[in-house]
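Hi L., both proteins are below.
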Amino acid sequence: MSFNSSSSSQQPASMRTNGHLTEARDLNVQVQNNVEQSASELLVINAVLKQEIPDHVKTGDVAQALQRTDAIEGRIQEAVSELAQVNAALSHEIEERVSLERELHAAKSALADATSDQLAN
């Protein structure tokens, strides 16, 4: 997914910002899903290796590789958690901005109505 800047010049700045935030969140969700899938695959591979490799072979480089996959698995799980937090923060920011835009639109409409009422009197 890429950020589409060609149509952004035709939209108000606030809509472009929210659109970019939404695209960033959606891309982040996609990355989170890929990382989660990779973590699951690594977990299965690691479990198979631990079961299939005889104990007398689990020494030296093999033992070190198994330990490293455990460590990598933990880092991937941390990354998934951090991505979920970023997604939640992006969603909250988008909701806040949409709410503020509604309030701004209502205020502008009220100001326009008040101005036209004063001009009519």
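That was the first. Here is the second:
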Amino acid sequence: MGIVPHIPKTARFTLGARIEDKFLNLLELSYTSYFSEKDKKAEKLSECIFTVDIIKFLVSTAWEGKFISNKQYENIATKMDEIGKMLWGWKKSLDNPQKTPLNKQSLRLRLKAGKR
């Protein structure tokens, strides 16, 4: 959101406002995803991932239009990639839940009972 004031006025209230709006939407979606019911989280996370992709597109459009500098673009692109990886990891953990590792005591009890 720190780049919008640096975008020229010709694009600040169109493309810049759109980027800023999408960032706020992403914050709202990630917040609602965190507090959503388990069966709705994956759907909300898909929306978050889609919003990240839209932000990447809008930022690359701003960069191609020379509204933001190479350094600003690189900074934002790196952060958006990291956010995307985090969201994908969260979604994958919901799709493929891992069993929690057994602690030592429960493992000993299982071994004594002959269960593995």
